[in-house]
Amino acid sequence: xxxxxxxxxxxxxxxxxxxxxxxxxxxxxxxxxxxxxxxxxxxxxxxxxxxxxxxxxxxxxxxxxxxxxxxxxxxxxxxxxxxxxxxxxxxxxxxxxxxxxxxxxxxxxxxxxxxxxxxxxxxxxxxxxxxxxxxxxxxxxxxxxxxxxxxxxxxxxxxxxxxxxxxxxxxxxxxxxxxxxxxxxxxxxxxxxxxxxxxxxxxxxxxxxxxxxxxxxxxxxxxxxxxxxxxxxxxxxxxxxxxxxxxxxxxxxxxxxxxxxxxxxx
Length: 266
Prior knowledge:
By secondary structure, the protein is of the alpha/beta class. It has two domains: about 1-230, TIM Barrel, CATH 3.20.20.20; about 230-265. The protein is built from ten helices and eight strands. It has helices spanning about 15-20, 25-35, 50-65, 80-90, 105-115, 135-150, 175-185, 205-220, 235-245, 255-260; strands at about 1-5, 40-45, 70-75, 95-100, 120-125, 160, 190-195, 225-230. It has an eight-stranded parallel beta barrel, surrounded by five helices. Helix 3 (about 50-65) runs parallel beside helix 4 (about 80-90), helix 6 packs parallel to helix 7 (about 175-185) and helix 8 packs parallel to helix 9 (about 235-245). The longest helix is centred in the middle third of the chain and has 17 residues, at about 135-150.
């Protein structure tokens, strides 16, 4: 499982306030804690204020990248912000989050992905928003896959997010997501899957219980990467156990290593 650590996101109050203060030490500690907890990528989101995001995302990249060994995931719909951040980015690997099946987003982002040989998250969403059936979402997945093919981007660089919709709005959304999740690698070998897990529980009580249960189910339905908080030990315990149960942890070494490190809280 590829863990994309989600905590550095300016929609969170603490992150937004630290970003306004340009508190570099705060962000270094956030990044290092997530790396130590098992993250493979540090997601970096500088917020949605267009006038500030270009400078803020660039500053975050410069502030964090040398403090960790792992690569960053640049999380923005602002193409200018991404371009500016990538001019100062100094690691070999990078992930960009994200583009949609809309033609204007494909034309705007995929040249950047190609230029920097980046991994990229594609959202199963089009002009009409998020479809309400597996078949409709898979049509958008087809558009995303064809787009990376047309730009000669390896399919292995594409991570499809089938999009998690809160079950509080529609109790069938979890099932719809899981069925789409399973269909993607079966239909398009080489393409990987990712999701922002916590949206499933939005508006519900005891959100962490729902998130942990959903992660276990998603791993069973072939989820390859998850945008999560790696500092949630119980969530990580579920991840290690689920990977072992699904035969995705050779000799259960990751599970055993986590146990010996005291990370498997019941």
